Amino acid sequence: CLDGLACTTDICCAGPGDPVPECTAANTCVNVEVAAGCCESHAECNEDKPPELFCRTGFCIGSVCRYGPAIDGCCATDAECDAGDCSVGVCDLENNSCIYEPIENCCVNSGDCPEHDDPCKAWICKDQECVEIDVPNCCVPDNPDGPDQSCDDGNPCTLGYCMLMSDGFYRCRQVLTDELGCCTSDSMCPNDRVQCTTPTCEDDSCVLKPVTDCLAVSPYRMTFTEGHAAYAGQYQTLENIAWSTASLSANDATGFFEFDRDGALGPDQYLSFKPNAGLTDYEACAVMPHFRTSFFSYATLGYDVAADWNSGTSYIRVLGRVDGEWIDAMVLDEVVVTGNLSEQHRNVSLPSELLNSENTQIAFCFAGDHSGDVNELMIDEVVLAQGRAPEIDEPANQAVNVGQTRTITDAVRVVEPDGQTVSLTLDQRPGSWVQLINVTRDPSDPTVWYADLRIESAVCPPGPPANYNILVKASDGNLYDRKGFILVINGCEYDN
To answer: Whole-angstrom Cα distance, residue 410 to residue 10?
Structure first.
């Protein structure tokens, strides 16, 4: 009964209807087709195939029809027309080809959306639809040179500029003003690094407010120059720095204190006393804030002093007290002015009566018989600190020949009684060819320091005399000493 076809079942019948209904008699052959979908050739799979498979090629594989992917450009259903973004695909069954129709107002990205005529609004693409939005922080330029009024944020310390950003929109950019000391709160005001004054924001500007009843601690330093450029020009009176005044005579001269720059202690600001002509028998004091000396074994007051003398005798006195009246205070130091006094530095050790106190006060008092005796009395660089100041042995004058190079061993000797580290510098010298080198501590005495003086190719002064004034400074970080010596250059020749 074998017919050689894969899609039939070959049967020898046992009788009518046995074993399959197609059997009509015994000992007869029937060839029954198997289930639908069986195939003998590729052609069978492409004949009379369903409409939805029109664009797909059939292949007979293992007697079963298999269909490949749709032929490009051909369709039998809408599903085969993949439209992508912003279009709809429909299958034209007459031609078995896709027709694509755009979706109205659809977008892929914001570039597909139109430009808005309002500079502070925009169309953006969201879920394939153009949506109108407000541009955040948008502005409209109103001043070609800036700043722009539309960007005024109300902060006096910023300038607002309407600027074109990388996304194509204008937005406000705030820039700090160049005005030093501008502020809107106390926290914006820089530290002036001066005790007894508090940086405060007042009327959009940083100002220094004196601290009432301030108790200063070691080290206290007053240079009479504002501690930060933001406060430049604010030191006008002693009250500005939390100092006060006192008069120790019937003729009150406390109104003649001022801050100046033009005298011997300039060019930076210093405290000046310039009494008016005609004032007699005066003594006016500039009083420092209260100072804590609790648990101090030693304390030292350092200051610079100078005087522009006219005639007669005047005095600069340093007074100290813990309580009582200033007229009864201790005299800690006195400078007798009987001629012009160039800048000098003085150190004063506080006596034991002024130590271990929460109420120590120091005053600088200026006195004279007649105000016409002096043009100006000056102090500067006031330091009040725990401990003792380093002391420079009076340096010997030195001499070298013009063009000579020489090292003078142990030219400077310093005693630091508290055993602290000392720095040695030249506060005044003719140039870098004069320098201190080899600053060392004496290994056998930790309170003693030495430095060598190095002179490289000595140079003559521009005119006679052929010498230079050299000023040495020794500092322990708070207190210091200054001493000078003369450097003579031999062999200098000058035209008469």
So the answer is: 130
